[in-house]
Amino acid sequence: MSTILYWHRNDLRLHDNEALAYAASTGLKVLPVYLFDPVDYRRLDLGFPKIGMHRFRYLLDTLTDLQKSYEQRGGSILTKVSPPHLAVEQLISEYNVTQIVYQRELASEELAQESAVDEVCREHGVEVHKIWGRTLYHIDDLPFQQEKIPLTSKTFRVTLTKATQPRELIAIPDHISWAECEEKFALPEPAELGFLGADVNTSVQIRYEAGERAALARLDYYTFQTEQLTSYRWTRNRSLTMDYSSKLSPYLALGSLSPRMIYHEVKRYEAEIKRNISTWWLIFEVVWRDYFTFRHWRFGDKVFRLGGIKDRDREWNHDRQLYDRWCNNETGIPWVDAHMKELATTGFMSNRGRVNVSSFLARDYQVDWRWGAAWFEHHLLDYDVHSNWGNWNIQATEIYYTNPTHQSWKYDRKGEYVCYWFPELRSLPGMTCHLPWTYSDSELREHDIHNYRRPVEIYSKWSRAIGKLTRGDAK
Ligand SMILES: Cc1cc2nc3c(=O)[nH]c(=O)nc-3n(C[C@H](O)[C@H](O)[C@H](O)COP(=O)(O)OP(=O)(O)OC[C@H]3O[C@@H](n4cnc5c(N)ncnc54)[C@H](O)[C@@H]3O)c2cc1C
Questions:
Q1: Tens digit of pLDDT for each residue in 272-301?
Q2: Which of 401, 400, 408, 402 is closest to 468 using CA atoms?
Q3: ∠ at Cα 436 (409, 375), nearest 5°?
Q4: Which pLDDT tens digit goes with each residue over 373-411?
Q5: Which residue ranges form the domains of the chain, and what is each CATH number?
Q6: Which of 31, 125, 409, 443 is the most buried (most CB within 10 A)?
Q7: Which residues form the pocket of ligand 1, taking CB atoms under 6 Å from any ligand atom?
Q8: Model pTM?
Q9: Whose CA is nearest to atom 24 of ligand 1?
Q10: Whether pLDDT at 68 is above 60
Q11: How far does the centroid of ligand 1 lie from the alpha carbon of residue 382, in Å?
């Protein structure tokens, strides 16, 4: 009997999975595969791999979890390190493949993978089925054409939510007939993807459990178990601890959680527990994710250009020293450095932190923002091409400036966050843990603070906020 090949991409789950449902419905033997494309792991001119160790390990853990789910149903996922079209070509003849199904993507590198796979399928007479599955609202339900996706998130959201609704969840198929796969489930070693010893030996702390099971457990924890969702509106701008926000983004990024699952669970929560501004706000944020996806669809590679989608003309520099200070948490501004240290250590950073550090790099240092986006791409467990490059684009070229000293006063008055990442700053009185540069070297030594970097510049526009922090103003 012939086989349908299910090429898994950012859809590493069984629940609400239209591609899997389609594969099962054909009655053909199903062969799930995951392909590690070496291009995704290439070393960038900036000197680090596009995908870093945090993301690589998180992906391996996610696949391990997916394999368990397949095994429970009698199946298995085949993994290979190969450009997708070459692997697909080989599998077509080995498994008598007559159909392939995969989740479509919209960014150019992913589209190039698809074109190459489609070409191979055409040559071999294999039918190709492309499924949409990455957003809350289905691409076919949008009330706009691609070239008319609204420029503002508000117009996008209001028009969209008036016109349509997210679709219902798709059930996991009861029965799947599996292709017999001789190769045992195996995951690649870092060296197979070009990681060097120095990349592997970083002090990676994975704090976020990976995979579909963990995703569904986290959703349940944040909603029905602890009811943290009820206060989300008021906690979402914090940076310290796990529960100030949902922490669902890493699951959404790899597709181990469906955005529709979040939507339907929040609706159930509203019916059974509480409906308030927080429940509304969480969905609002998931719609932001849709907005970035579809905005990218409209503007294509403009999202990656220096002037952004609006072709903004602004002066940028390529000062490697400034960039390295920023990457290595050595700007001398604790509020920026603490967030950058968290990113490098855990692969995660709060939204508040992302807004601040991106604005700092692009607006204060005026370093080419795409270097910052590439550093985020390397590290972020929740890296999503549309959300990352779209948010950077906005921070660098569209919205207002964010003052890090004012933000540290507003969001970390007691200095708990910066002192968590730099405990030595705890001995500075009041709110001045945010202002170590206001002390002389000898004063810092008296507080047992050694080697905390001095900022390259203290901008005059920060004066008012620095005054508030120095005085310890409550308002
Ligand atoms: C410069 C910059 C880069 C970013 N890069 C990414 C990225 O690569 N991947 C990513 O998922 N998010 C990115 N974000 C958006 C946001 O910071 C994260 O989605 C959020 O911090 C994830 O934490 P959470 O799941 O607890 O979010 P919550 O506050 O609990 O929000 C729930 C969900 O809504 C979505 N969401 C929330 N805020 C945004 C936003 N501003 N843009 C798009 N979606 C949003 C996410 O899917 C998130 O999981 C970026 C933001 C900035 C400013």
A1: 999 999 999 999 999 999 999 999 999 999
A2: 408
A3: 75
A4: 999 999 999 999 999 999 999 999 888 889 999 999 999
A5: 1-133 (3.40.50.620), 134-168+212-304 (1.25.40.80), 305-475 (1.10.579.10)
A6: 31
A7: 236, 245-249, 252-253, 282, 285-286, 288-289, 292, 350-351, 354-355, 358, 376, 380, 382-384, 387-388, 391-392, 395
A8: 0.97
A9: 247
A10: yes
A11: 8
